[in-house]
Amino acid sequence: MPRSGAGFAWAAHFGVERNRPAIFTYPRWSPISDYRMYCPWLSGRPGPDLRVAGVA
User: Fold this and answer.
1) HSE value, Cβ hemisphere, 13 Å, CA-based, for 54
2) How far apart are CA 40 and CA 46, in angstroms?
3) What pTM did the predictor assign?
């Protein structure tokens, strides 16, 4: 997982949303999911994944 945004994400989870990050509940699946989101964005091809998720 790219560590640059992890601190901001954790701060938002605890401070704003008042919940725990998924990595505490699903320690193996959380990094896999992060990479599945990060890699298409990095390659510039998030379109097909967004369409499958129903995002316009």
Assistant:
1) 0
2) 5
3) 0.51
